[in-house]
Every structure is written in C-alpha cells, then in structure tokens.
C-alpha cells in the first residue's frame, strides 16, 4: 500500500505520522496522481497545529501542493489523461505517495519546468502572481515592501516585482538572508533584528514611503507596516507566521492616510477553473522565460516531514523546500 503522512491530533511536528493508506480509485471528476515531489509551506504548519481546522476533520493528510503523473482518471475528466505530467495546488492531501483528488485542480506542467520546480513553486508562485497582478497591480515605478524576503514566496515575488519595474524593498532576519534576497530581485533589504524598518523605509524612499506592503508575518510587523505606506497605500496581510494580527479599530486606516487593507487567500483567487489556468499560466510563463528562477534549497524524504516542519518553523530554510516520496 502507498504511504502518506497522517495527522491524528493537532500539535507539534511530532504529530506527523508516516503510515500506509488506502488510496482507492478515482470517481467522477477525479484523478489518481502519483506524486514525484511535494511542496512544503507555512500553510501546512497552520493546519498541523490546528490554527486552520482541516475541512475534513481528524485524521487528515496535510499538504496543498505537488507535482507528478496522472495514473488514472474518473468519469467526465477530459483535460488531463494518464501519463500527463501535472502540478497542483489542491485540497489537503499532498503529503502522500499517491492521492485521488479533484481533477479540475490539476494543470499540465510544461516541458521547461521540472517536477521538483513545479512542486516547490505552485502555491508560492501563484501567491506571488495574485499579490502582484491582482490584489495590487504592481507597475513600473511603484515601490513595494515585502516582509520575510528570503522566504519561499519572497524569493519569487522579488524577482517578479523587479521584472515588472518596481523598486523592491524587503525585510529579513540575518545578513545571509538579506544577501539571498538581494540576489533575487530586492533592491534594498532591511535586517529587522538590528534596524527599525519603518525608519529605513523612510530613508530609502526619501519620505515618500511605499505603494503597497505585502505581509505574511502578522503580529510582529503590525501596526508598523501601516507606517511604511504612503497616503492611499494598500496593506496586504496574507499570512501570520509570528501569530495573528490582533483586532484593531478600522479608524487607524484613516488616521494613517486613508489606507486600504485586505486579507486575501490564494484559494479564493483560483477557485474558478479559468482563474486557476490563468494564474498558473502566468507563473509558468515567467519561469519558462527565465525572468523568475525557482531554486529548491532544501529536500527531505516524505517520512522526515516532521524534521522539515521543525526546520521551517525554526527559520532554518530559505526559498523552496520539497518532500520526496
């Protein structure tokens, strides 16, 4: 029988158990996929700890991102067929050797993109796409601030934003991570452990501040992120690696310059099949062209998922991390 990671109770990395599972056959609208690589994301930690409840309840298999080969399809599936190379951001269940999943979440992987690349970039890369191209449409001349610049989304978004012609400012927690970010499109990187990022943004921009702040950190960077925005700027909170942003009075947005604030998720932006295909297509295009390079910096065996989670939470990873079945 194939194996997968199963969570029977929420908690620390130790709750990730490597077990045999019964996968079954694809039904109507489904496909059976053999994963060749699986993406690791902070979102997986949120589900493991129970911060985000698993829709199916307990037990569940975590993971939303992977790449591999279609082995079989169910009734009504025509856009993929057995033998196709595919990648996906789908419902929970990616931490597995094989899985049955909704076929409408699968996109074909172009020849120019390797499976390991695809597995490490789908969630993070499509997140960068909707942040830059739809939540706030970044254009040449814009100035952006991105927190956690050396993270998986950050290294993709930095390159992409630079490709769009923006001035790209990031924050990172060490000199090594700052250098990594600078090599991936960031014009300026602020070490938040030793520098006041609001004051540094003020210096870098000569007081103009930023058009948009992209923040996946949460509690530790709020409300200071609002002070990095120009009047009518946008605060985009799309994660909370340091904990959730506490409740706040909306009046603070008017006081700090009639600001906009939003809390988007990728799954809303790609809920429709046509939006998924467009978002993935844009990502594949910038990667295939070489404008955005995807580097897999860490690889773990699927059975070592607990160690991978511990390293992710301990901020010992950079860029893309994958699990190998």
TrEMBL record:
Residues of the Enoyl reductase (ER) domain: 11-323
Matching PROSITE patterns: QOR_ZETA_CRYSTAL
One GO cellular component term noted in the UniProt record for this chain: cytosol
SUPFAM superfamilies: GroES-like (SSF50129), NAD(P)-binding Rossmann-fold domains (SSF51735)
Molecular function GO labels: mRNA 3'-UTR AU-rich region binding; NADPH binding; quinone reductase (NADPH) activity; zinc ion binding
Gene3D superfamilies given in the database record: Medium-chain alcohol dehydrogenases, catalytic domain (3.90.180.10), NAD(P)-binding Rossmann-like Domain (3.40.50.720)
Keywords carried by this UniProt record: NADP, Oxidoreductase
NCBIfam families per record: PRK10754.1
Name of the protein this chain belongs to: Quinone oxidoreductase
